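Much of the work behind modern protein science is quiet bookkeeping, done one molecule at a time. The protein below has been through that process, and both of its lines are reproduced in full.


***
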Amino acid sequence: MTKDIGNIGTGTPTYGFWEYCQYLDTLFYDLWLQCAEPTGLGMGLGMGLIISSFITKGMFTPFIMYSQSVGVKMKLLQPD
């Protein structure tokens, strides 16, 4: 990903949220293609999709567990 020289003179940020999303998109796409080279296109893309979904699920697991624990606590605080 190259730097946008036009943003430097104006003082606006060069890298932001959408550039980070674009970086992750190209990273996962390259991961899928690397998995596809040795095993064939269909099998490799499937394995890349499964691996990236496990990585994503692992990243969000702490948030899901916290949300569920707060929900249980709120249910216990509910009046009879």
